[in-house]
Amino acid sequence: MNTTLAALQDWVDEVAKQTNPDRIHWCDGSDTEYQALIQLMLDNGDLLELNQETHPGCYLHRSDPNDVARVEKLTFVCTEDENVAGPNNNWMPPAEGHAKVDALFDGCMQGRTMYVIPYCMGPIDSPISRCGVEISDSPYVAANMRLMTRMGKDALARIEREGTFVKAQHSIGELDPNKRLIMHFPEELSIKSIGSGYGGNALLGKKCHALRIGSYQAAQEGWLAEHMLIVGLESPEGERHYIAAAFPSACGKTNLAMLIPPEQFPGWKIWTVGDDIAWMSVGSDGRLYAINPEAGYFGVVPGTSPKTNKNAFDMIQRDTIFTNVGVTADNQPWWEGHPEGEPVTDWKGNPYDGSTPAAHPNSRFTVSATQNPCYSEEAESAAGVPISAIVFGGRRRELAPLVMEARNWTHGVLMGASVGSEQTAAAEGTVGEIRRDPMAMKPFCGHNFADYWSHWLSFSNKSSNLPKIFHVNWFRQDKDGNFLWPGFGENLRVLQWIIGRCEGSAAAEETAIGNLPAPGAINLAGLDVADDVMRSLTSVEVEHWREEANGVKRYLESFGGRVPQAMFDELEKTQAALN
Ligand code: OXD
Ligand code: MN
């Protein structure tokens, strides 16, 4: 017996019987174990050692070239009633889902070690945290889970105490896209994923548990599981506000979570609590409190430089697993946007000839959050951090202003539900196409969006002390494709206005689509943004917004009768004001 919890031991025995591994290893989460996993992967070729003088503790993993992103078309939510999964998910009845995926799992671990990986999503002693156990035949997954979650014996002890855990079964299978399935069974709190070793498909604590299973469970239990960073902003006077912000994948969440204040903001400090996921729950004072269920970052590498994100750049100089970057002649990691060196080998291991990027556009770093220079100790707080503002955003070259504030909670939920964004490389699909991505949860909401919105709306009955809701867009472009707003650290100017709105000190103008910054209300000191550019960033193009409102209405209607009427009523207010 490796655990006192019979339900866990029985499940592990069952999976072992089905998959037939040579060995079973129960992960304890120790440093010795991590080093042994690294050594094993160096020996078997899963990892390559990078230059240990310049990058101590850094390694490179090269994926199968057919396995470099999440695959939404192979991702399913299996619920008894199709309407529970909703039109936003690929659906299968649970019995069929199990049968299909189990056929692939049969005997798949022969010749391999099966890792049993107990993990806790969130601080070990937080009531908001939830646990799971991942079973995987990939040492890469075991090592990454050690960086990304609280993994090992403390998690196991909590699981044994509570008696409940999410069952997360994974195998890389044959890494064959035709034999790949990522199945979620929210009603059973279980996940079965096979055929991929890519982070979002294989590190099951992250998207599969913390978001898909999490969002379903949160709706049952009265909390929120969201695709949001959590950042703390400290003013020179020492006052801290925490903001939770949702952006679609690869839209700069990690950058915003660890931004460096512009030099015109002396004394301001930024604290990162999380860069991708927030679990939030109403506290006894009626405020919304957030924890980051993760303990590490699985961030997009290309573009990371001292100019764009010095904190991230510094953080990944040591003890980092790189996936699918290029390497230089002296074996340093290299990617597009790296400030120095040049690649000699691309992410596939071929000689670099400049015809295609050296690093895959979705190449990633995995690193412990504690290496972040602005890591907040509050990330370990059992109570979580109080959220002052919720921010939604997308990547839109037109239409959406730099920032707007929702009229009230219901309008904020509608704003979140209306998020549209250009597709990025984080998932398979056509990069650049606009798609609706409500609350940046399109790929991650584990149940019907209509029910998810109802759940969001229900929070206005739980408290009158909720955060204000905003929408931002860092990605507006002119006709020639130049960005209108400098972004990166300068985004603090917008966050400062948001905090000012929460405190009642920043000026705004009411418009049909929400409250926009009054002229001069955003601090532009030392920034070279022309007046007319600022005007177009903070004005409402009425005709275009009328079309947008019609598009949002059609989108909401596509979810049928389950959509709460309050969403349509709120949209009508916007439409009436636009007319
Ligand atoms: C991620 C994603 O990896 O959103 O965080 O794809
Ligand atoms: Mn993400």
Give the biggest beta sheet.
9 strands, mixed
Q: Which architecture of the largest domain would the CATH scheme give at its second level? A: Alpha-Beta Complex
CATH topology of the largest domain: Phosphoenolpyruvate Carboxykinase, domain 3
Total individual domains: 3
Structural class: alpha/beta
Distance between the termini: 69 Å
Give the number of helices.
16
Provide an overview of this structure.
The chain is α/β, with parallel strands linked by helices and 579 residues long. It has three domains: 6-46 and 70-222, Phosphoenolpyruvate Carboxykinase, domain 1, CATH 3.40.449; 226-295 and 378-578, Phosphoenolpyruvate Carboxykinase, domain 3, CATH 3.90.228.20; 297-371, Phosphoenolpyruvate Carboxykinase, domain 2 (Beta Complex), CATH 2.170.8.10. Helices cover 30% and strands 23% of the residues. Strands 1, 4, 5, 6, 7, 8, 9, 10 and 11 form a nine-stranded mixed sheet that branches. Strands 12, 13, 14, 15, 16, 17, 24, 25 and 28 form a nine-stranded mixed sheet that branches. The longest helix has 17 residues, at 205-221. The model has no long low-confidence stretch (mean pLDDT 96). The structure holds oxalic acid (OXD) and manganese (II) ion. The site of manganese (II) ion has 3 residues, from loops. Residues 70, 199-200, 249, 276, 298, 426 line the site of oxalic acid.
